[in-house]
Design goal:
heterodimer; A: alpha+beta; MutS, DNA mismatch repair protein, domain I; DNA polymerase, domain 1; Dna Ligase, domain 1; 5-stranded mixed sheet; 4-stranded antiparallel sheet; 14 strands; 38% helix; globular; B: mainly beta; 8 strands; 53% strand
């Protein structure tokens, strides 16, 4: 089952400020400091021509009465968390998919909750515990085998009218759906549309080898989804208990050096918690309560698990400078939400690869690139703009001229 | 090596200063930024004339041992008259 609340974040804002419900409202995109853009727009703003990703000046010129709202990511996250918690009463298999979308694994629950229609009703009833009725009323629900089918069902339905697709009907249900619903690179769907393949029915008439030749593995996956052959199961989220620490400032703070000092202290405190022992840090979230109202939140997934304070604070400081809070901070909080193994430093080539290299059957030689190396190259490319790694290739190994024998070729897996 | 999209040949010749004797044999070699080294012995010598159909190559190679014990491959480019060191 898929439950979807379109423009989830904007709707949460409208729940907080109901007086804005009938006006033109737009939510600003988070994480930008100079060139602000629009993230989500209300129906009225949409009618006036305001669209997501427009820059603010353009949006305001199109709709002078537009009300712009600063995002409150901490509030959205807390509400989404409450929603997921309430849904675990229905099924333990809850997979959040972000921005008001959640998948529920309902296999084997028919005898407990009854027909699929009853199951959807039960799920919506769970949402009433978190959201006011008008918000629940906008929820779209879809039920089908696999996540893709359920998502397409949810998007094709209307609020309050769940779309239920039985396994035997999945094929016929998917056929008229546009190729844009496929969870593949948008460039793939754009190319398909340019080629006149606009629906999943059109797509499935194509031979698999041709699709693979044109689009690689994405072509194969697209065909599998389009034919209903690929059924992705719902994967329950695994959430280790996070470690949270916070610091209240006696007076609101804007000075960077003070914030950096507070951040260092928070990281020290979080790392020294007994609950953290034996585990390294992978994901960390830094949030703040801002003066007046509003909040600020940045999230960092570390390149590699670590327990080193500097390695944790450094990316957080960078994020802080890239997307600074819009006001003075009253309180700063830190949450370690993802943990790694205690031995933090992994080698670039793991033992298996070392063993295979020693036996002359290296993965690289076979054209297989270990994921750790791929990740390392990705990081280096982000930092330098190009891959600084090269591999030696034979050009003309028996040439009499030494510089003709071997060459370096960019290693960019 | 900024533009990483093309092949970068390995063992490209590096220009060196070579002082020769009256027979044209190398006596002193100086790599850029390094002090000159005396050639102790010429161990091997061969000649390559190749690729006459596109960009002709005509080189007189020597493997020499320097006074610090290093073995270096040098060649005298017979077309431009300069000396180069090369990893062979």
């Amino acid at each position: 089952m898929c439950l979807w609340l379109p423009t989830f974040e904007l709707r949460l804002e409208l729940v907080r400020s109901p007086e804005l419900d009938t006006t033109s409202v737009a939510l600003l995109a988070p994480g930008e400091s100079v060139r602000r853009t629009i993230w989500q727009v209300s129906e009225r703003a949409w009618e006036a021509g305001v669209r997501p990703e427009q820059i603010v000046s353009q949006a305001v010129s199109l709709c002078p009465s537009l009300t712009l709202l600063e995002p409150d990511p901490a509030h959205y996250e807390a509400t989404a968390e409450a929603m997921h918690e309430s849904l675990t009463d229905l099924t333990p298999i809850v997979e959040p998919a972000g921005h008001g979308r959640v998948f529920l694994g309902m296999d084997g629950l028919e005898r407990l909750f009854g027909s699929p229609t009853r199951q959807v009703e039960r799920a919506l009833r769970c949402l009433f515990r978190v959201f006011p009725p008008p918000l629940v009323a906008t929820t779209r629900a879809g039920m089908a085998p696999g996540k893709f089918g359920a998502w397409v069902a949810a998007t094709s339905g209307r609020p309050g009218e769940p779309v239920l697709v039985a396994e035997e009907n999945l094929d016929t249900f998917l056929a008229p759906c546009p190729v844009r619903v496929l969870p593949v690179d948008p460039l793939v769907t754009q190319r398909l549309e340019r080629l006149g393949i606009s629906t999943l029915g059109d797509l499935r008439r194509l031979p698999e080898p041709s699709l693979v030749a044109q689009f690689g593995s994405e072509g194969r996956a697209a065909l599998a989804w389009a034919t209903g052959r690929r059924i992705d199961p719902v994967r329950p989220r695994h959430r280790p208990r996070p470690i949270r620490v916070s610091l209240d400032f006696p007076t609101p703070v804007t000075i960077a050096s003070t914030l950096h000092g507070a951040l260092d202290r928070l990281v020290e405190r979080a790392l020294s918690r007994p609950a953290r022992r034996g585990r390294s840090v992978v994901g960390v979230r830094l949030g703040a309560r801002l003066e007046g109202s509003g909040s600020w939140l940045v999230e960092v997934i570390l390149r590699e698990p670590t327990s080193d304070r500097k390695r944790i604070t450094s990316p957080l400081r960078t994020k802080m400078s890239i997307s600074p809070p819009s006001g003075a901070m009253e309180a700063l909080s830190l949450e370690i939400f993802q943990f790694g193994a205690s031995s933090a430093q992994k080698s670039l080539f793991d033992r298996k690869e070392e063993a295979s290299r020693a036996s002359g059957e290296g993965d690289l030689a076979r054209g297989e690139v270990p994921p750790s190396l791929k990740e390392a190259v990705k990081e280096l490319k982000l930092r330098l703009g190009h891959s600084p790694l090269y591999r030696v290739v034979e050009v003309d190994p028996w040439s009499r001229i030494p510089e003709r024998r071997h060459a370096l070729l960019s290693f960019d897996p | 090596m900024k533009d990483a999209r093309c092949l970068v040949p390995l063992a490209k010749p590096r220009s060196v200063d070579v002082r020769t004797d009256e027979d044209g044999e190398p006596r002193h070699v100086r790599f850029p930024g390094r002090p000159a080294r005396r050639v102790e012995v010429v161990r091997e010598r061969w000649r390559i004339d190749d690729e006459w159909w596109r960009r002709p190559i005509s080189r007189d190679y020597r493997t020499v041992v320097l006074d610090d014990g290093r073995s270096v491959t040098l060649f005298h480019d017979l077309l431009d008259g300069r000396w180069y060191a090369q990893k062979s």
